[in-house]
């Protein structure tokens, strides 16, 4: 059988500098069954996880089912050629595919055409095995750097959105995300409830246990909140000091009252071990619900100018929750106040 790749005459075997090959699956797209099978076996022997298909249409189906960071694609194929597949994949920005064109073309203008179509690299069929591996490994190195950059981007984003002490979302995230939450609620006519929680007598905690004890109390308080709300639906941010905002999407006022009472009871029941002592907390809550509470309600000391409410539902919702939190404090703390 014809060997479609030549071995390196210097070593007699392929050259490899990357050990991460199994983490970067390869999709091989080629209508030549002999080339496809030989290339598949060779790449698998070299440690790559490879799937092979015979045409670009089947490749598109496989790509929808699974992400292939590396794609080896023949240029000349019936119906849809490799250039068209490259162009289609590049119209979808995420996730990124490192595409190497397999071609018998070696004309400079044609190579430029292939790269302009979206290919990252090319290799002429009939070349050495070591060259194929080197080009694939080059793609792996680039993809590794891309992953590292994405991780760093996410870390920077986390730092920008999170409170450094507790890990809760910060006020900037609240302002940005709650606006989107309320717009979604308005579009789909869904309720959104907001709880404003404040640890009772937190200054006394700091005075008695020091700021390290206060920090432990804040972190423990957040964990209790998170343990008693819906995962990946509800979310918590640190509003300032010992105040936290709990956002409950698609939650009516009565349901939110039940959640608030559950949170209040959980805070009251928890114990925090700090050094050789135990810290216990209570918290007060104020509840407001969009859109029902953003109307004139004479029972609350809130402005009933409807035009103002329409202009800033976020500010008005938080103000109403804050006023109701204040009433919880006035009524003895360790309470929930809604309508």
TrEMBL record:
Modification 4-aspartylphosphate occurs at: 74
Domain GGDEF positions: 190-339
One of the record's GO cellular component terms: plasma membrane
EC number: 2.7.7.65
Name of a matching Pfam family: Response_reg
BP terms from Gene Ontology: cell adhesion involved in single-species biofilm formation; negative regulation of bacterial-type flagellum-dependent cell motility; phosphorelay signal transduction system
NCBIfam families, alphabetized: GGDEF
UniProt-recorded name of the protein: diguanylate cyclase
Organism phylogeny: Bacteria, Pseudomonadati, Pseudomonadota, Gammaproteobacteria, Oceanospirillales
